[in-house]
Amino acid sequence: FVHSAELISGPSHARYAVKRIAVSEDEALDRAHQEADRLANLPAHPNIVRYYGSHFSTSDAFLVFEMVDGGSLAERLNRRSSSLSAEDALDILGDVVAAVTHLHAQHPEPIACRDLKLENILFDRLDRRYKLCDFGSCTTIAKVYESRREIIDAEDEIKEHCSAAYRSPELVDLYSKQF
């Protein structure tokens, strides 16, 4: 769940987006910590939603982000009565590619966004650009699987964390270059 929050102390009354993740199981807590750690170490980029910090309780993790209030790309496309112009489509693509390129350029471990979908691309009305959000499915693991057991385990993890319709080809069929 993502909630809108407002800082009531101080002069600015700034608004934030707070992602709440249920962490009642150890595995969920570990994933939330990994997401927070990855975001804390990710250099800022104009096409990635800015991360400010996190708080963990016994049942929930709270990750705090900048408020991006222009809606998701999916919502914006659904509201349109006409198709996108080639120029608009290229502008959107440029913003998304810039964000993904930034993730892939991280050292020592490039970051792969495994849930790149219309719902995870937000429009920032103030900056007039699209920004990538939701890094819970990201990974730095890149490997060739050596056994059927590794493939089965990887498939289970991919099914849990990656939307089926948006998976990259290498995540759809892990057997294709194996046995």
What does it look like?
The N and C termini lie far apart (40 Å). A 4-stranded antiparallel β-sheet has the order 1-2-4-3, covered by helices on one side. Strands 5-6 form a two-stranded antiparallel sheet. It is globular and about 55 Å long. A hairpin with an 8-residue loop joins strand 1 and strand 2. By secondary structure, the protein is an alpha+beta fold. The chain contains 5 helices and 6 strands; from the N terminus they run E-E-H-E-E-H-H-E-E-H-H.
Low-confidence stretches: none
List the secondary-structure elements in sequence, H or E: EEHEEHHEEHH
- The termini sit apart by 40 Å
Q: Summarize the biggest pleated sheet.
A: 4 strands, antiparallel
Oligomeric organization of the protein chains? single chain
Task: Tally the helices.
Answer: 5
Strand content: 15-25%
Number of DSSP-assigned strands: 6
Radius of gyration, whole Å: 18 Å
Q: How confident overall, as mean pLDDT?
A: 88
Give the strand line-up of the largest sheet.
1-2-4-3
- Helix/strand class: alpha+beta
The percent of residues in helical segments reads 25-40%
Spatial shape? globular
